[in-house]
Amino acid sequence: MADERVRQGRLVPPAILTMICLYGALVPLSPLARAESLHTIVVTATRTPEPEGRIPIDISVVSGETVRDLDAHDMATALSLVPGVEAPAGGDAGPSSAVPSFWGLHEFDAFLLVVDGVPWGGAFNPAIPSLDLTDVERIEVMKGSAPVMFGATSFVGVVQVLHYPAGQASNEADLAYGTYGSLRGSASMVLPQVGSYRQSLAIDGERLGFADGRESVSDQHALYRSAVSVAGGTLRLDTNLSFVSDVPPSPVIRSGKTLTSLTPINANFNPADARINENEYQLALDYTHATPLGQWDTRVSYAYSKVTDIRAFLHPDLSGAADTQNQHRLIEDGYFDTHLDMAQSRRAHVVVGADLLYGRGVQVTLNGNNAYTVPLDGSEIPPPTWTFPPNEIGALDDKRLFAGQYAQIDFDPDARWDILAGVRLNEAYEHKDSSDLTIPPPVMLAQTVSKTIIKPTETAGASYRLWRSGPDEVRAYADYRVAFKPAAIDFGPDYTPALLSPETAHSYEAGLKGEALGGRLYYQLEAFQLDFSNLVVSTPSGALANAGGERLRGAEAELHYNPSKLLELIATAAYHDATYTQYLFFDGVSTVNVAGRELPLSPQLLASVGLMYTPARGVSASVVAQYVGRRFLDEENTAPVGGFMTLHARVGYAWGRYKLSLDGTNLTNRRPPVTASEFGSQSFYLLPARMLWVKMGYHWRSE
Predict the structure, then answer these.
(1) How far apart are alpha carbons 695 and 204 in whole angstroms?
(2) Across the strands, what pairs with 306?
(3) E-only strand ranges, 590-665
(4) What is the pLDDT, as a whole number, of residue 415?
(5) Whole-model pTM?
(6) What is the number of structural domains in the chain?
(7) What is the pLDDT of residue 500?
(8) 544-561 as b/e, with b when 16 or more CB fall inside 10 Å?
(9) Residue 703 has what pLDDT?
C-alpha cells in the first residue's frame, strides 16, 4: 500500500542528512511521498477495515517495509520504534522468545499476540518462540485491553502480525552470516495461480550463536497461504509449521542491591542436555461470504505443540547448588469465531458474533532438587539430567474453554465524529488436575479443581476532528475499557494446584492524533490510567494468591516526519508511573507493604529515535537508538539499575535485483538485566551481546 510504503523506516548517513532534510523542506512532496498516517487501514480494534486516525484508541502501525528495512527477525527490533514498548529477547521461554512490556507492565502473559486473526498461543500464553516475521505486510500494536471481539485475553496491549494474503508476497530471498557463526536465510514468493486458486509461500531458518558459547537457537518456519472462490464467497487456508530448538542461558542472580559478580556474565550452569524444543503445527480455515445483512466471516484454527524443556537454576544463596527440571508437555490450541459485519449505512457498522477459545496443556515434570553443585566460575559443564534420578515428579492436565458473544458498533454521525462501543458476555471454564510426588520418603499430593466464570466486558470511545485544512488535521479521542483475564498457567516446575480468581482492570485513555506540514508530519499523543486488581502474587508460603493491585498511568508520544519520500524520522517518548496499590510482599525475612512503590523492571522514561533512508538503488542506511531509563530489580525498590542506551544500525547497497547490507544490533554492547525469571528466585536475564550480520538479498518484485 502506498501510504505504508511511505511510513517505512529509513535512514541516511549523518554526512548527507542535512542536505536531504533541506531538500525535503524546499521541494513539494508528491502524494505518494506524504505519510497519510491517519488514513492507514487497520483491523485490530474493529475486525473491519478502518482508517487508523479515526479510531478512538492508541494504535501504532509498523509496515512490512519497515520490518524488512530494519532486518527485524524478533519482536525487540520490529517494535523498537513503537512508543512506550519494550520487547527484550529471551526470558524463561528461551532465547527465541521475548517479554514485551506495555504501559510499564513487564509481564510475559499480560498482552495478546494475534497472527493473521488468530490468538497465537490460544488460551494459555503468547507463543512468541513460534512467531515468524518473514513476509509480514504490517504489524498493528494496540495499547490497552483487547477488543471485545477477542475476549478475556489481555490488559495492556495487543500485537497483531499480518502476513501478506494468499497470492501476494514480498517476493524476495536472502542469506546472511553473523557473529558467533550465526547463519540465517529466508524466501517468500507468490506461487502460480490456478483458476481462482491463489497461493503463496514463505520459508525461513536460522542458527544463532551467542556470547555464551553454549547458548544457541536453531529454528525453521514455513507458512503456506491459499485462497479460492467457493459458492460466491472466499475460502482461505493457512498452514503453519514451526520447529524451534533453543539452548537457554543461565540468568544472573541478584545479591543485595546489585547482580552478583561471583558468576561470569556468560557462565552457563544448565545441565549438559539442556534445551527448550518446540514443534508446532497449525492449520486455519476462513470463509467469507456476502449476505443480505452484511459480510459474514467464519474462522477456525487448530494448533498442536510438543515441548521439551530441560534446564536448571542456581540457588539464590550462591552456594553453587542447582535445581533441575526435565519437562515434557503437549499443548492443543483451538479457536473458532463467526461474526457478521452489518453495514447499516455508510456511517454505521455493527459487528455481532461469537467465538470460542480452547486450550489443553498436559505436562510431566521430573525435578532434581539439589541435583548438583558446580563452581561459580562456570568452568565445568554440569552433568546431564539422565545421570541422576529425580526426587520430585509433577503432573498437570489443564483444560480451558473461553467462549463469548459480542456486539460492537462503529458509528460516524458526521465526518468529524467516530463513536466506537462494544459489549461482550464471557463464559470462562477451566478444569485442572495436578499431582506431585516427592521422594524420599514418598509423599503424594493430588488435587482436581474446576471453575466457571460468567462476566461481561465493555468498551466505549469517541474521536472528534478538531481542525482540518487540506491534508492536515487534528483529532482528539478518549476511551474507557473494562477487562478481566483468568490467571495464566506458567507451566513451571512447582506444584500449583489452585485455580485463582481472574485479574480485572479498568482503563482510561485520551489523546490527540494529527498531521501537519502538508501531510509530512504525523503525530500521536496519549495519556492513560489503568487500575489493576486481583493481581496474582507469591505468598510467604511460596504459593500463589490473588493479593495485589497495581496502577499504571503515564503519557506516550510518537512522531513521524517525512522531509522527502526517501527519508523518514521517527521519534517516540514515554513516561510511565507503574506502582503497586496493594501488596504485602514477603522478602524472605519479613512482610513489607510495598503499596506506592514502583513495579520491578518498569522504567519511568523510554525513548527512541530512528532515521531511515532506503532508495531503490544505491546506498541505503538506517539507525535506531533506544533509551531505557532507571528502574528497580525488586518490589521494595532497594535495588536500582541505571538507564542504558542501545544502538541498531544498518547500511546497504542495492543494484539491479540485488542488495548487500551490513547490520549491527546492540552496537554499544551493553548487558543490563532486562527480564526477571519467574522460576529462578532473584534471577535476571541480560540483554544479548552485540551482533553483526552481512546479508545478500535478491528480489523479483516489479518496481
Answers:
(1) 14
(2) 279, 330
(3) 591-593, 605-613, 618-628, 631-632, 640-641, 644-655, 658-665
(4) 86
(5) 0.92
(6) 1
(7) 79
(8) bebbbbbbbbbbbbbbbb
(9) 54
Q: Cβ(526)–Cβ(510) under 8 Å?
A: yes
Q: What is the pLDDT of residue 49?
A: 82
Question: What percent of the residues of the chain are helix, what percent strand, and what percent coil, each to the nearest 5?
Answer: 5, 60, 35
H/E stretch holding 580 reads: strand 567-582
For residue 16, what is the enclosing H or E element? helix 14-26
Q: Looking at residue 29, what is its pLDDT?
A: 35
Q: How far is the first Cα of the chain from the last one, in angstroms, to the nearest whole number?
A: 13
AA letter at 5: R
Antiparallel, parallel or unpaired: β 521-538 and 631-632: unpaired
Q: Nearest 5°: phi and psi at 67? A: -55, -45
CB-based contacts of 19: which residues, under 8 Å, 6+ apart? none
**Which three cell numbers mark 407?**
456486539
pLDDT at 18: 32
Measure the CA–CA gap between 322 and 268, rounded to whole angstroms: 12
Q: How much is the pLDDT for 21?
A: 34
pLDDT of amino acid 497: 86
pLDDT at residue 28, as a whole number: 35
Which CATH number characterizes residue 307's domain? 2.40.170.20
549's enclosing H/E stretch is: strand 544-564
3-state secondary structure of 87: coil
Print the domain residue range for 21: 2-699
Q: What is the 3-state secondary structure (H, E, C) of 119-145?
A: ECCCCCCCCHHHCCCCCEEEEEEEECC
For residue 370, the Cα-to-chain-centroid distance in whole angstroms is: 35
Point out the residues of the chain with pLDDT beneath 50: 1-37
pLDDT for res 394: 96
